[in-house]
């Protein structure tokens, strides 16, 4: 069964860091991550978030007027042979 990861994508890193700080203050877990190239070729920063937190994150974005590009749900790319050369 594929695992889906949820990302918040931004037009620049400033907005990503602002949202990260606001979510941290609210106690919502988010991880700063590189933007998956399958989702966007723009800003290199995104936030990896839990699906159950998306509604609260949308409220936070609206309340603090933080600009985002979109939310993206991406299938997790698990390759057990990655970085193995023998």
Number of helices: 2
Mean pLDDT comes to: 88
Distance between the termini: 28 Å
Helix content: 25-40%
Number of strands: 4
| Secondary structural class | alpha+beta
Strand order of the largest sheet: 2-3-1-4
Secondary structure layout:
Blueprint: E1 4-9, H1 13-26, E2 30-34, E3 45-49, H2 54-64, E4 70-75
Antiparallel strand pairs: 1-3, 1-4, 2-3
Written account of the structure:
With about 90 residues, this protein is α+β, with helices and mostly antiparallel strands. Helix content is about 30%, strand content about 25%. The chain contains two helices and four strands. A four-stranded antiparallel β-sheet has the order 2-3-1-4, covered by helices on one side. The longest helix has 14 residues, at about 15-25. The protein starts with a strand and ends in an 11-residue tail after the last strand.
Task: Give a quick rundown of the structure.
With 86 residues, the protein is an alpha+beta fold. 29% of the residues lie in helices and 26% in strands. The N and C termini lie far apart (28 Å).
Any descriptors?
86 residues, alpha+beta, 2 helices, 4 strands, globular
């Amino acid at each position: 069964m594929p695992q889906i990861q949820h990302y918040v994508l931004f037009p620049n890193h400033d907005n990503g860091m602002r949202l990260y700080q606001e979510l941290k203050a609210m106690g919502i877990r988010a991880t700063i991550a590189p933007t998956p190239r399958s989702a966007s070729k723009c800003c290199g920063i995104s936030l990896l978030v839990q699906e159950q937190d998306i509604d609260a994150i949308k409220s936070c974005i609206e309340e603090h007027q933080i600009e985002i590009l979109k939310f993206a749900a991406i299938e997790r790319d698990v390759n057990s042979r990655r970085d193995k050369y023998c």
